[in-house]
Write a structure and sequence with these properties.
Largest sheet: 5 strands, mixed
Low-confidence stretches: 352-360
Strand content: 15-25%
Distance between the termini: 58 Å
CATH architecture of the largest domain: 2-Layer Sandwich
Shape: globular
């Protein structure tokens, strides 16, 4: 029997997405160092334009540090409803080519184009056509990686950013991977990277030449995954329409506050979460979650699965507020963050069937 043909995977990643949308919609921001973030000591950067990145500004960086690195930066508060709308437009473009789409976030997605709707001969052509449509229809740019699997496609999409495309063919995989630092592999954070370096494994090539048994002994099951990635092997398929498991919203306070001072924040977050949940027409959340982070960065979560589900943002807020009673820390405790979430989503139809079973 012949081996199965490799998949054709495209990873599309919008370039500096939030910042690019802001620059597109406000011509006076074009060519300027734009930082999408609220100002404040506790705010973090959501996105930075390429002009701001030249100064070292990066996503997830404290906003106050971004301001020090780039004093001339223009701070723009994020508008996630607008970004979601643009994200939907990009996915409409993807859907012209394949139904096998796995969104990772608002600004990136995997596409399996092994068979494509347009009948194009190669995945390279598909990626190029998608990028052209994004540029012409949305006045934005995207980068793309084309490869036989998801892991490689994601690395490839970052290779020629911004507004670039990189194609990795099967016979090129080994030579491409070998010189890469192990930190480029998915799941390898600072701690794992340090452990790999201590074992003399600095590049992906070092990993590829290691004994799989040694890696499993040192890193457990993840050692097997590392060994496969180093060979360029990733059998994970593109997962379409991953069901929602949780919806949440959280906010960091400008100053640490006592527990009895967070009610208004919880009510506001509950309204935001409820609005998002209303878009889930096929699934219903069963669990309500309250999240808190103390001044000492201790994270607490309290949850409840009520017999009767809330039917409004006000009812959701009331349940979330009631969970404060289950926080058993001293009154002097101060909190830096609060969050509200809905979890344990279940298919609405399945829930209705269960309801019928327990009637009478």
């Amino acid at each position: 029997m012949s081996a199965p043909s490799p998949r054709k995977i495209v990873h599309v990643d919008m370039d500096a997405f939030y910042a690019s949308v802001e620059q597109r919609d406000a011509p006076e921001l074009r060519g300027k160092p734009v930082v999408v973030a609220w100002r404040g000591a506790r705010s973090v950067v959501c996105a930075a334009s390429y002009e701001a990145r030249k100064f070292g500004v990066r996503s997830a960086m404290p906003a106050i540090r971004a301001e020090r690195l780039c004093p001339q930066a223009i701070f723009v508060p994020p508008d996630f409803s607008r970004y979601r709308a643009v994200s939907r437009q990009t996915r409409e473009i993807f859907a012209r080519h394949t139904d096998l789409i796995e969104p990772l976030s608002l600004d990136e997605a995997y596409l399996d184009v092994t068979q494509n709707k347009q009948g194009l001969a190669t995945a390279t052509e598909v990626a190029a056509m998608i990028r052209t449509a994004i540029r012409e229809e949305l006045n934005l740019t995207a980068s793309a990686g084309v490869a036989p699997n998801k892991f490689l496609a994601k690395i490839a999409s970052d290779w020629k950013k911004p507004d670039g495309q990189f194609v990795l063919k099967p016979h090129q995989i080994r030579a491409f991977l070998e010189p890469l630092p192990v930190g480029r592999l998915p799941g390898v954070g600072k701690v794992t990277e340090t452990k790999l370096h201590e074992a003399g494994l600095v590049t992906v090539g070092d990993l590829a030449r290691a004994q799989e048994a040694d890696l499993v002994e040192r890193f457990g099951n993840y050692g097997h995954r590392l060994f496969l990635l180093a060979q360029g092997i990733d059998e994970h398929p593109v997962c379409v329409d991953r069901p929602t498991q949780q919806i949440s919203a959280e906010d960091t306070f400008a100053e640490d506050v006592p527990l009895d001072a967070i009610d208004e924040t919880i009510e506001r977050l509950a309204e935001k979460v409820w609005t998002q949940a209303c878009h889930e027409t096929e699934r219903v959340a069963r669990t309500i979650i309250l999240k808190l982070k103390t001044r000492e960065f201790r994270i607490l979560t309290r949850s409840v699965t009520p017999a009767v589900l809330p039917t409004s943002a006000e009812e959701l807020a009331a349940v979330a507020l009631s969970l404060k009673a289950r926080v058993e820390l001293p009154e002097r405790t101060r909190y830096r963050l609060a969050g509200v979430g809905l979890g344990h989503f279940q298919d609405r139809q399945e829930l209705e069937v269960q309801g019928e079973l327990f009637k009478g």
